[in-house]
Write a structure and sequence with these properties.
The structure is a homohexamer. By secondary structure, chain A is mainly beta. Chains A and B meet through strand 2, strand 3, strand 4, strand 5 and strand 6 of A and strand 2, strand 3, strand 4, strand 5 and strand 6 of B. Strand 1 of chain A pairs antiparallel with strand 6 of chain D.
């Protein structure tokens, strides 16, 4: 499957923190950069996400903001 | 200003493409990775964004998805 | 690729309307229902999207609201 | 009230799963398709959402991605 | 129609700027505060949005960030 | 830091409700208007958000919808 989202970065899952309905998944994309994702527990279970696993973070361009000093 | 968004990555603007109301800004965050952002032309003008400038991409955790092979 | 987004519905592209930087893609998901998507022109080109093509609409659960009468 | 969101699909609530602050509401939109929504517990209470109730899923076009095989 | 989005603020449309596919609508919510919305041209046409008209801005809680100095 | 998000409104935090992974922060922006934000617990802790504190709500224009009667 190829998806329209402009931003797709491969990395390694650092940790998965499960809440009551929502999980936080942190992915190391290299160069000391960590991306945090907030997704459903159902998605974590279905994809079998766990620390050490390979994963791609996917972000739609319209959800990216730009900041300057 | 410090913001709640979990993902803030410093980089360099590669290019700015202006449309009628919406611009696309691409930011090189290092390691061969480019992040594409879709923002208003007004924001581009106000922040003075242009190729070569330093910029931080800002992404809320709830806008990040995870994919696996 | 499998993605965490909870909503993935297969359909047929009805039409693609290109703007200066942003395109609107409408997908018929059956039962008389049309889903409208707003994505970058770059994504339309890269995926080769055009009327009549098969496509899957992908929507993160946190982007879905609920309304009642 | 009429809203700008391009995607408004009527269905029937399948179930409501409440977490600590966030609920997941699943809506059957017909044709065997289920849409999952992640909203606040406060919204669930205020709208009186429960299994079997009629509900409309509302999705802004800029939150819809397109995937192809 | 009542919607799950936690943030619904009534105001008056200041101006509507149409692009090729995307419009920007600015709404005065009182107290000198202007909210900018980016929606499809189709929505602007369908709802008949124009300067001086009454309108409600609608924002899902998961799309709101918090910043501090 | 200046950010591209078109909507930045200063207010006072009314309350912070922490869930397992996700918090709801309500901000009084004056004129009897309250904005609700759903962010990670980690962001609440890092920014030291608590009732009575000054805070700015930040909302990207593409996340704002318009409704009319």
């Amino acid at each position: 499957m190829r998806i329209s989202a402009r931003n797709q970065i491969v990395g390694t899952i650092v940790d998965v923190t499960k809440g009551a309905t929502t999980s936080h998944v942190r992915v190391d994309i290299g160069g000391g950069k960590i991306i945090t994702s907030s997704i459903t527990n159902a998605a974590v279970d279905e994809l079998g996400l766990k620390a050490g696993g390979k994963a791609t973070v996917v972000i739609k361009a319209s959800d990216v903001m730009i900041a300057v000093d």
